[in-house]
Amino acid sequence: MPVPARLAGYLALGFTWALASASFLAAGESPLRLTQTIALPKVAGRIDHLAVDVAGERLFVCALGNNTLEVLDLRKSTRLHTITGLGSPQGVAFLPESGQLVVTNDRHGACNFYDGKSFAPLGLVELKDNDDNIRYVAGHLYVGYGNGGIATIDSGAKRLGSVDVSGHPEAFAVEEHGLRMFVNVPDRHEVAVIDLARGLVTEQWKLDGAAGNFPMALDEAHHRLFVGCRAPAVLVVLDTNSGDLVTKLPIPGDVDDIFYEKGMHRLLAVCGAGSIAVIDQVTPETYKVIATMPTAPGARTGLLVPAWKSLFVAVPESAGHGAEIRRYSVN
Length: 331
Known about the structure:
Layout lengths: L4 H22 L5 E8 L10 E4 L4 E6 L4 E6 L4 E6 L5 E7 L4 E6 L4 E6 L5 E6 L7 E4 L2 E6 L3 E6 L4 E6 L7 E3 L5 E6 L4 E6 L4 E7 L9 E4 L4 E7 L2 E7 L5 E6 L4 E7 L4 E6 L3 E9 L2 E9 L6 E5 L4 E6 L8 E7 L1
Antiparallel strand pairs: 1-28, 2-3, 3-4, 4-5, 6-7, 7-8, 8-9, 10-11, 11-12, 12-13, 14-15, 15-16, 16-17, 18-19, 19-20, 20-21, 22-23, 23-24, 24-25, 26-27, 27-28
């Protein structure tokens, strides 16, 4: 019986990717190597999401429990500046075209704009409580907030509109070559699919019984959506053409960030149980955990910077150990 062209293509891809992984593992190299550690003295409590200024080699860290945004100089491995007076900051975005910095806050629902060099306030957009994840895509900021909204804001701090997703949104992903946004809605144990052109939810995809769906990543080229779930602790892979389940596999507990490195066909899941799961995409249908790298309890947020082949992981303060940022080389 002849093999369908699409399946034949996937089999060829699987052979190529598997061969590359086999060579990598045979060489005895670790998929992640710690290359830099930056201390965060006097930063207490939980640390949330991160952003980067690639040209300026700066990292921005939401110190949620500290009510501050920490600005780090990656060249010197030091703290450059602290923005104080925030209300449990959860998300941050750097806009390279304008040099602006945007911070979202849980308390009071403020989305604050700053000059990225002087850190002077430039304005704010008031949403509802629990402003959370933020993405900057094609000149627009998308912010998840409140009990179920995704707001669209321009770089001039003007709110353009919002879409109701019927539950507090966590991580979301936007197509580069399409007009859809995929949104994790843990309250409903589902992924909401938004048509950005029409500004409405068109589909809701279930997760094969999994819940606690907080982080998300997208492989647009192969039509795969990766959803990290906490109950149970699994990675759910969905087909973005249909919303159907492709597969799911166990990962460590308390996952809060997932990244897809398309050049290596690899997923990195940052888990608060104290490890990073490194997952190979053998084919678009087949996935394998190839390593579990120990970090620290509570280290569950991070940032993948493909331009540097670097993964940054936030480690919160614990007994006998101060807060810090760890940088890993993705081999």
